[in-house]
Structures are given as C-alpha cells and as structure tokens.
Design goal:
Layout: E1 4-11, E2 15-17, H1 24-27, H2 39-44, E3 46-52, H3 53-61, E4 72-76, E5 89-91, H4 94-103, E6 108-112, H5 115-123, E7 129-135, E8 143-144, E9 156-162, E10 168-173
Parallel strand pairs: 1-6, 1-7, 3-4, 3-6, 4-5
Antiparallel strand pairs: 2-8, 7-10, 9-10
Length: 178
C-alpha cells in the first residue's frame, strides 16, 4: 500500500506564495543544503504525484522542461485540461482517488503543491505524513499553507531539524482514519 506524503515549504508567517501568487521568495533558497532531506533524494522514492489544477497550471507555465517525466502524475480538477504539457491523468472525485492511490504498490505518493488539496486529504484521514520546511521569511500576506476549513487535527511530531540558511524541517505523522 502506498504512503501518501506531503513535502512543502512555507514562510515563517505560514504562506506558500506571496500576495501576487509568486514563489520568488522561495526560489532565493535554491541550492540550499538540505542534506538527507534534499528534494532530489525525496523524489527518488516517489512514483506518483498528485496536484491540484492551480499547481498543474503553475508548473505547466514554467519555461523549463516538465520535471516529472517517468512519474505517474494525477491532476485533481473538474475542468478539462486542453493540450496537457505531459502525460497526465485527471481525476475529479477525491474519495475515489484516495482508494486508487492506496492500491498502488510501486512507490510513495507525493501531494505536490498548495494546501487546499492537502487539506482535503487531511480531512479524509488520507495524508500519512508531511514534511514542512519553514523558511526564515515573513511575507506579510499571500496564500496560506492550509486554508481555514474549520477542521481540527493533532498530528504527531516525528522530528525537527535545523538546516542550512535558517530553514527548519518539521516532520509530522497523521493518525489514519480511513
């Protein structure tokens, strides 16, 4: 059974993008030494990526080559994607998708991108663990790590690490409910 994981960066004030939906503040940390928690090590154990439409559109707009060749990519959206930039699957039913993901046995699943879809999985008890990288930046507004939905949870802290350039890694496990 595949584990469903989060791996995401946030500002110190809990934003994943600034007021203009920009990630330049985060890109300033490219090349930072994350040691054993480096993205390139993380992505090697991932076989499936799940992202919402906003994240797909953001990645598809980038001038660089599609970064997820060789991975199963599922975009959760209710709108059709005309002329996709890569080989992707589209799903609209989150509950059916969770069951589908749990049946995979070829690697872990990464919930890529913003907190809206991750929160939908958390609310359903379907996010197993999350690594949150807190960057020493205060953006003063923008897109929050998780939308305020009224849902409450108390995940278990697995570990914390102080990393390069003032970054702190928080690793949590969620109790399964589904």
């Amino acid at each position: 059974m595949a584990r469903i994981l989060g791996y995401i960066a946030t500002s110190l004030d809990g934003m994943i993008a600034d007021r203009n939906d920009n990630l330049d503040w985060l890109f300033a940390y490219d090349g930072m030494d994350l040691g054993e928690y480096d993205y390139n090590k993380f992505i090697k154990r991932i076989q499936t990526l799940v992202m919402g439409r906003g994240t797909y559109d953001f990645v598809a707009r980038q001038p660089s080559e599609w970064p997820y060749h060789g991975k199963r990519v599922i975009v959760v959206t209710s709108r059709p994607i005309d002329n996709p930039v890569a080989d992707i699957d589209v799903r609209s039913d989150v509950d059916a998708l969770i069951a589908e993901l749990r049946a995979f046995d070829d690697g872990d699943v990464w919930m890529l991108g913003g907190g809206k879809l991750q929160m939908a999985f958390i609310e359903r008890g379907a996010l197993d663990e999350i690594e949150i990288y807190v960057m020493p930046e205060i953006l003063g507004g923008g897109k929050p790590l998780f939308p305020q939905t009224g849902f409450r949870s108390s995940p278990t802290l697995i570990s914390t690490q102080m990393l390069d350039r003032g970054c702190v890694r928080l690793h949590y496990r969620f109790s399964p409910t589904c």
